[in-house]
Protein: Fanconi-associated nuclease
Amino acid sequence: MLKGRESLIRLIGRRRRLRHSLLSSSAPQGLLIAPKEDKDEVTTGNGNGNGGEEMVDCPVCGNKVRGEINSHLDKCLARGTKRKLSQCTLFQLKFCTRPKVTVSSVESDFTRTDVGPSAIDGNICDLASDISSSDGPLNNVQDESNSSPVSLTLTTNRSNICSRESSVCNGVNRIENLDGLVKFDDECKLLSGANPTISGLEDSPQHQISDNRIDNITNSPLSLSENGTSKCVEPLEDDDKILLDTFIVGRKFGGVIELTIGAMVMLSRDSQNVKDTNAIKVLTEDTGHSKELGFIPRELAQYLSPLIDKFQLRFEGHITSIPQPPRAVVPIQIYSSSIASFGKKDSYGFQEFNSFRRNALCAAEFSKTHPPIPAKYQHNLLLLLKEVLKINAHLFTEGEKTLLKSFLSLSDDSQRLFARLYARKGPWFRMARISYAEICDYEEAVKGLSEAECVTLFESIDKLQIDDLKEVLNVLNVGELWDLLCSLNKSHKKIVQKSDHGTRKQDYIARVLGAYESGLCPNLPSMILGKTGSCIRISASAESVFWRAERLFFLNGEQDLSAFLLVDLGIVKYPAYNCIFTDQIFPDRSDLLSYEEAIEVAQVMDESLDENNNELVSRCIEISASHVSSFVEEDRSSHSGSMVAFLSCFSASWVYSKVILLGVSFLEHERRYKDAIDLLKLLLVKFKSDRRRGYWTMRLSVDLEHVGCLDESLEVAEKGLLDPWVRAGSIVALKRRVLRLGKPPRRWKTPSFSNSFNRKIVEVHVQGRPVNCKTGVKNVFYGEDGERCGVEELALEYYAGEGGCWQGVHTESGIWLTIFGILMWDVVFADVPNVFRTKFQTAPLDLETDSFYEVRRGLVEALLDKIEHGMAEELLIMSWESHAGTACRGVNWDKHSLSELRAAVTCIGGPCLASICRNLAQDYRSWSSGMPDLLLWRFHDDYRGEAKLVEVKGPRDRLSEQQRAWLLFLMDCGFNVEVCKVSHTPI
Structure:
């Protein structure tokens, strides 16, 4: 892969559906200059308009546009701008096999305020419901589409169990009950919390969502206290009966039974249920044979079941309303027809009874505003849109705001249908094949979306264009395309032959379109629509606006709405931190549009490399170079200190620089060194304060040598050594070039750094029996046990035996980044303005910049002082116990055990460990790779130990510049460092 390609792919994220109009050869030069506010005037036909500004033809719609065209392009840019989804989303989890997940007691013992909604008395917790079904089985029936359920077992600490009289423990994402152990299966449809997302998001003043359909719990026993936490209003004591409003769920797995409003029902315990021993069935109250209607929700059943079993209560009730879908949840009202018989004054039984009753009332009241529907994805999308509108409203036009607000006011069915379609690849979908259990009325859903201009419908052939025709053809399967071709073949025999039956789908589509464009089959659109029926797709304007909102919310292209679901499912646990905003990432709309256009160029560059379209690649490089040439590095002194370092990452010029860097690799691969030299000089002139200057300088020096300019190559390398932004491995590489090129007669004086640079590193030689000896193939050897292993495992065997009885791990940089993240946790997630913008970050935005250390210097040095004085192990244990399992940049909880990490930090020693942590804190980006392969340690009798770092090299390997930089740094810190060279056993 070309250098810089992987980084560009991460920046782009999910690919959007582009028309490449901005990059066509006919596109006017300067088209992608940073756009201004949307004030363009559009005319139709050939009118010249008024005023002195030049009229420009829009390459998209063909209309005349006065003045700046970019803002107009943002509005009318052709259909299909949504990123391309190349894999299934979490919305489609019911088609996937899901592994079992077990949350250990180590994690569950800690109060988690960072993930998940509130829990009622520690028992009601928003574990992820089955996302893809409407009212899946709550108790005894397993969903056929989920053959591998997720089983979550959460062990609790009884010292943390909320009081039985307490009502709600908000934000605690664990389950606690009187027995200390509760098991749930994924089929359970658990009630959502106050907001089905990360609790920290709604706790912040900037993140308070007020959607009545999501958060209106004013009349519920659940309400917000003054400090923002949920509490349960004490229910009135009522010795006559317990009255509850709830639902019948799990009906889709039983037979269809005709229901009537007011029909009587009764509850019956199902203690033999293998899925849930608290299961309670809902039966029809007939004089003859009672029929099973379904179950009550599990979160309510866990409180009612002891009331039935232990206190002999009998519950009955009636159906309050009938839903339209025959298998949807059915609202019912139930009440107890008898009261437990015990004394009220001094009986512990009464206290226990009252506790269960309070919890049951809370659970039932809570479900009024949070019915058991699998629409988390809808709630998550609403939350995302509201947050973006609240924080970044200035970046949207009035038309875009109107579209978003119209969507927010749509019915639940419309919003769910849109969310489903948005998550799918598309772009076109057959209306006849869209089926989701949680959507009740498709006609009304589509009508609402169409009126809000969120979807486009094709119901007649008059609206089909050639591009639309090609996309609609993709809806057909291979068999249908074959039938279509056979129909055409009756009148046009050359279109398809019998031997072509195995042709790929795209070949079929190309032949069909070829017949249409050549005029052989003018009635093709009606034939296609006859097979597909009415089709629907998300409109171009909605795709563009929602993509923009998603990008603004996550501030990257790698995350999307599935990040919410990963949290809901308990797969990812994000750290707790405060989002403090003092500055905007994008001050005005023109900055955002320029940034988006730069990302579009980057995506076209990436796609063109995939397609080997060198002409389009060159076009992208030219556009990027043109923009960077006009770029002037801004003075950001008006922004806060923490904003200065990473703000440039959200600018168009920074994106274009990444395109140029990839272009340099492309040109070098094509041996167009002079063109690559021009681009590298441009980058070095325009970006004076960039951590990539070391690599740019190195490549410039190398390319100058390729074209025979040795004097200039040496001069560039020497100047690079004086550049403060050239660091780590780049310094080592440039020093090596200076020593090699700077020989007489070019340079007569030996550089002052030559002695330190040429220091010898201890080498150890190990021989092994090779499995293969082929060049270009990974080295594989036979270990002591006869099993095949790599050079690192062979070196570990050597050091464990004759090499000195060392213990150790093959980890490279992994264990060091893990130790750094765990020890520096409080520093990394300290309250620094603007570096945390969403609740889905695993590190601050400035971690890989110089400002990380500058802004937190006091915190960093105070912590390093403790580490240096021998407190590393204690700090490690405390941080591990508090944050185990929480996602953090660089930290791998699974690969390294606590015992390994404790042994490592103890044997390394405080001073050496503090030096490494300081180095990473000052320049995480430059030093987060290239660490030695092996970390070895051994203990002495007095619980003191020593450590050794070893870089392992195979027969044909050599040290990289970054690895050499690390080894020299570690030697300066006082580490015991070696290079272990593995060679073949002589025959």
